[in-house]
Design a protein that fits this description.
The chain is α+β, with helices and mostly antiparallel strands. The chain is built from eight helices and 17 strands. The strands form two sheets. Strands 1, 2, 3, 4, 13, 14, 15, 16 and 17 form a nine-stranded mixed beta sheet that branches. The protein has an eight-stranded mixed beta sheet with strand order 6-7-8-5-9-12-11-10, with helices on both faces.
Length: 353
């Protein structure tokens, strides 16, 4: 017999958790004093691709990104940084508004495993980035004209019953290699103030990357207490609109924004309360697998941050801080780096510029 979920009980327990996370207590449960090495901002969002030319053209022609660099890197330090032996990588940086995304293709070793089919938003390897648009109807027409594969059947509008997100419009879809993407429209007074600036552009920039997590409490503890991000607010998303958005029946999701304190993008934590059965991140995930995403965050003291993370038992992909060759620093955009995994297996690249 199928298990019947008491939605009101899920909602009550989730809101109780939310109150615990964001209500002040002493110095504050939603924030803490700044520590040496705390993350300053999210520099870029990236993922691994197989056909770099096709992926680049998709972002340029369909989503109106601008290619700003196309380069290769190879060397033992990059093997260590990525956790992939004998790595030879071709990297493309694309810009939309003020934000940068990074597409990485492995010349060697060959591209790893494809994104699992089926793959759902409550699986713990799920991650997407949200692209802000000024007109959802016009942006959706471009997706349709390009025969883009949709996750959502159509763009949804979050109802007034969800006060924190009411009026926001969104649709989720796939790029040619099934990476998860989202278009999002913010009405006046919702979203970052930068999205309200006058613009004649349809595609404006990247608002956030969203990652599925097993526990909001554990993930907030990691991103807030170890990395120094702040809880920016949470919403409990449920009902038919959320089901259509995620293509997931009986969909209830606690969404928590983790803010670096400056302009977009930020990190969102997606905690699916129902349906049950989301699969874990494969423990042998490697950076050349196509479900690998890496969010690059900036710190002014990478040694202090890595020492704090190591003491807390964080999983490191990079054994120790890697110094980037001087000739590669301008292209990559940083001087030192280390790659880690959060409590759910999502990869973060910590850098010092």
């Amino acid at each position: 017999m199928a298990r019947i979920v008491d939605a009101s009980r899920v909602l009550f327990s989730s809101l109780a958790l939310l109150t615990t996370l964001v209500m002040p207590c002493g110095h504050g449960a939603s924030a803490r004093d700044r520590l040496s090495g705390d993350v300053e901002r999210v520099k870029m969002i990236g993922f691994t691709v197989d056909d770099l030319e096709r992926e680049t053209q998709f972002f340029e022609k369909v989503l109106q990104f601008e290619k700003v660099s196309d380069f290769r890197i190879v060397g033992n330090e990059y093997d260590r940084m990525q956790g992939v032996f004998n790595a030879n990588m071709r990297i493309v940086h694309l810009k939309l508004g003020e934000q940068i995304i990074e597409l990485t293709h492995y010349v060697s070793p060959p591209t790893g495993r494809p994104i699992p089919v089926p793959s759902y938003s409550n699986d713990l390897w799920f991650e997407h980035m949200a692209i802000v648009v000024s007109d959802m109807d016009a942006a959706y027409k471009i997706l349709q004209d390009g025969n883009v594969r949709q996750i959502s059947a159509y763009p949804i509008t979050i109802p007034q019953s969800n006060a924190g997100a009411a009026g926001i419009k969104a649709i989720k879809f796939h790029d040619p290699e099934r990476h998860d993407l989202e278009l999002i429209y913010f009405p006046q007074g919702k979203g970052d103030l930068s999205w309200e600036k006058p613009s004649n552009k349809l595609f404006l920039g990247i608002d956030h990357t969203a990652m599925t997590v097993a526990s909001t409490e554990n993930s907030v503890g990691f991103y807030r207490d170890l990395l120094g991000l702040e809880v920016g607010g949470s919403t409990f998303n449920t009902g038919s609109t959320q089901e259509v958005l995620d293509n997931l029946f009986n969909d209830t999701c606690l969404v928590t924004a983790m803010m670096p304190g400056v302009a977009p993008p930020h990190v969102e934590l997606l905690d699916y309360k129902t349906p049950p059965g989301g699969r874990p991140m494969p423990p042998d995930t490697a950076a050349n697998d196509l479900w690998h995403w890496q969010t690059t965050v900036v710190t002014k003291d990478i040694r202090a941050l890595t020492d704090r993370l190591r003491k807390a038992g964080t999983q490191f992909i990079t054994p120790d801080v890697v110094s980037i060759r001087q000739g590669d620093q301008a292209q990559l955009g940083f001087k030192k780096a280390v790659m880690i995994r959060d409590p759910n297996g999502h990869a973060l690249r910590l850098i010092e510029e």
